[in-house]
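Before the break, one more example. Copy the sequence into your notebook; we will annotate it together after we see the structure.
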Amino acid sequence: MTRKTADGTGSGSRRIAGVLARTALAAGVFGWVGCGGGDPEPGDGAIKVGAIFDLTGPTADVGTDYADGVRGFADWINRQGGIEGRPIDLLYQDYGYQVDRAEQLYTRFVGEGAVIFMGWGTGDTEALRLRIAEDEIPFSSASLSHRLGDPGEAPYNFLLATTYSDQFRIALEWIAANHGEGTPVVALMHNASPFGLSPARQGGVEFAEARGLDLTLYEMPRGAVDYTAEFSRIRQSGAQYVVFQNTSGPAAVALSNARSLGLEVTFFCLNWCSNAQVVLLAGDAAEGLMGTMPYAPLSVDVPGTRVIREYLESTDGSAAGKTNAYTQGWWTFAAFAEGMRRVLAAGGELTGANIRAALETFTDHDMGGVTVPVTFTPTDHRGSKGLRIFRVEGGTWVPFTDFVQAPAP
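Here is what the structure looks like once it is written out:
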């Protein structure tokens, strides 16, 4: 069952391997061995999982789909019988992208018995980092801040997608390799937050310098409805490339501004604006947009998207309108569920230390083709270091490259 702790909504969920039987995929792909019947209700054996979502704050444009993916996986796995027969009891609330609210909800849900936690933003995840370690709560955030994958700094944080810094390096490496003559001039337009600054401040600036790129940062003020002033400065700089580290709403506004101003540059989106929503909002202005996309959209036909589409159809829902943030939320939770399954299958107790140790046994863990296989070790919690670059063609994101690995810092 999943339940929103304020009003309470119910549904169910289970685990990763029984799914594949329904999708006519090989059951061994994910290594799950489903137990029990359908749609179990939480009881004494329920596994409590805490989660915070941004459903009303400044990143709700992508946060809502991510939240739906997390809740969808919880429902799906309970329908399969739970994890080794134990249902998930998902405790969650909207925190509106407020760090203090995130800290309150984290304390509350851990106090209620949550053994793992699904987080969201960079600012709040970094603020909670030391408490997470003290509490020994395995934690996966939608934030892909590079330092959160360093067990020396964040021993209980795990990253299930390519870090912002690695995404930025992949984009910069593509620019450097494909630019031709002269020095590539790059503008990074970023959210006014730790999330926005993360790729540049955690290795991006140094990488650009090492590769001979001229990089300048431009803040995108929160709530802005026009970026003409920023683009005036970008035009004066002679930039040929603009990279967005923001969510889909602000990026779509900027793309529309740039089109109306006749600005001829190559645009790149990092993770949180590489989605269907930016195309919907920007329309023709999104044509040709490049994107570093760690998780495949549901339009890409791989085992990991098929199971989601079948689940949505079974609930009278539809994949239409769902973005790759849904895929990312679903499969982030699925990886943590596999860690818990390994503990239970070995007869262990679901403690944070045991779950962490199980996650650290992941070696090329299959993620259903939605992203590169994931590897964790005791010294490296950056599980994914590669992705595909996508490009908007005819109003649709299509793969532009095969999976590529992030270059070394």
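The chain has two domains: 47-161+300-378, 164-293+391-405. Residues 164-293+391-405 form a domain with the Rossmann fold fold (CATH 3.40.50.2300). Try to locate both features in your own notes.
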